[in-house]
Write a structure and sequence with these properties.
Largest sheet: 9 strands, mixed
Structural class: alpha/beta
Shape: globular
Number of helices: 12
Distance between the termini: 31 Å
Number of strands: 15
Strand content: 15-25%
CATH topology: Rossmann fold
Helix content: 25-40%
Order of helices and strands: EEEEHEEEEEHEHEHHHHHHHEHEHEE
CATH superfamily: Alpha/Beta hydrolase fold, catalytic domain
Length: 423
């Protein structure tokens, strides 16, 4: 299966706020049973609690989703509860979100080092590996992996949250936020919609807001903004830009590719685009180096035929793979490998219905805003996989349709005296 690796796996840079609403939430001082983590191998001393384990999501006990939960560093009872979802579809929130982006630790050789920008400084965070077949999550019935789609994923995620709240009952009724990247632009609105609908008969989710990073919200707009992005950043020539917008645009190429009917014109156009952008440019951040040895090329999904690494530790993805495949780490996490030989950042067993990409979710975002759910769409301007320009267009159009007006003038963002270049 090619890979779509969504923006799900990148730390968006130079954050641009497009639509906002924020919140506050409480925490958990108990529960979890045997899922409490005593200590992760190589972990520095910390004061916050950690939990991980499985929640069954079917009636047979054969399908379970793996989660990693970290309490807020200080006074967790007063901090928000956040569910984090990476995309792909089929890529790991544990390996990407928790250990490469916004979790409390990052692997470095045989040890873990603290992440200065961890989200658990301000929130209690659940990292969920979803759907089954991703990371440590599994189905004992391998037939499940054939043709998993958005509807199945939303249903399983919904069941997970219901049962997680039963395991951690002190969170029932507390404010909840859902955040994630890339193809989580499908996962999150669909899960939130299911929660809002469920609350009509039994209000157990105190859902307050969503945060969507470089999200796939509307296939054509999001994907076709890639040509302008490449051209405006000097990654393709003028002539290639013209054929990329007239002969075969990116949405057509992806539709043909995953529909099994790739035409000769689209093949020629994409070969030209690939030659000019090259494998030496990190498509998630065009200013960073790439780790050519990385085995985690999530971008294969959203970018068929392209492989990309990651950075800050340029090869942090490789370090994460090595760490999460250690037996002592798996034992500490209460994790197991079922039906696979090793933990992988993006699933090699899951056959996701990739044409679900064409299902728009921007309309669901609109209905959630109308129902009172706050939504933040943020977009890194160095990410070419799901570019800022597409997200910006979609949010502006949604605001117009809903009659929303800007309340704060457009401005630069500062961290201290420095203009912010990283979220």
């Amino acid at each position: 299966m090619p890979a779509l690796a969504c923006c799900c796996c990148r730390r968006p840079l130079a954050m641009v706020m497009l639509l906002l609403i924020a919140a506050h939430v409480s925490s958990c001082n108990g529960g979890g049973g045997g899922d409490r983590i005593t200590r992760l191998p190589g972990q520095p001393e910390v004061s916050f609690g950690q939990y991980s384990g499985y929640i069954g999501v079917d009636g047979k006990g054969s399908r379970a989703l793996f989660y990693y939960f970290v309490e807020a560093e200080i006074d967790p009872a007063t901090k928000p509860l956040v569910l984090w979802l990476n995309g792909g579809p089929g890529c790991s929130s544990l390996g990407v979100g928790a250990f490469s982006e916004n979790g409390p630790f990052r692997p470095s050789g045989q040890r873990l080092v603290k992440n200065e920008y961890s989200w658990n400084k301000e929130a209690n965070v659940i990292y969920l590996e979803t759907p089954a077949g991703v990371g440590y999550s599994y189905s004992a019935d391998a037939a499940y992996y054939q043709g998993v789609d958005d509807k199945v994923t939303a249903t399983d995620n919904m069941v997970f949250m219901q049962r997680w709240l039963e395991k951690f009952p002190q969170y029932k009724g507390r404010e909840l936020y859902i955040s994630g990247e890339s193809y989580a632009g499908h996962y999150i609105p669909q899960l939130a919609e299911a929660m809002v609908d469920y609350n009509k008969k039994d209000r157990i989710f105190n859902l307050k807001g969503l945060a969507l990073g470089n999200p796939v919200l509307e296939f054509t707009t999001d994907f076709n903004s890639r040509a302008e992005y490449f051209w405006s950043h000097g990654l393709i020539s003028d002539s290639t830009y013209r054929i990329f917008t007239s002969v075969c645009n990116y949405s057509r190429y992806v539709s043909e590719y995953y529909g099994g009917s790739l035409s000769l014109p689209c093949t020629r156009v994409m070969n030209q685009v690939t030659r000019e952008t090259s494998r030496f440019v990190d498509k998630y951040d065009v200013t960073l180096d790439v780790c050519l040895s990385s085995v985690l090329s999530q971008s294969m999904i959203l970018s068929p035929h392209k492989r990309v690494g990651q950075r800050i530790d340029v090869c942090v993805e490789d370090e994460t793979v090595n760490y999460l495949n250690r037996k002592d780490v798996q034992q500490a996490l209460h994790a197991k490998l079922i039906g696979v030989e090793k933990w992988e950042v993006c699933s090699s067993v899951l056959e996701y219905e990739l044409l679900n990409l064409q299902i728009p979710t921007i309309n669901i975002v609109g209905s959630l805003v109308q129902s009172g759910i706050r939504v933040l769409v943020y977009s890194g301007d160095q990410d070419s996989v799901v570019p800022l320009t597409g997200s910006r267009t979609l949010v502006q159009n949604l605001a117009r349709d809903l009659g929303l007006k800007a309340t704060i003038p457009y401005r630069v963002w500062f961290q201290g005296k420095q203009v912010t270049t990283e979220t």
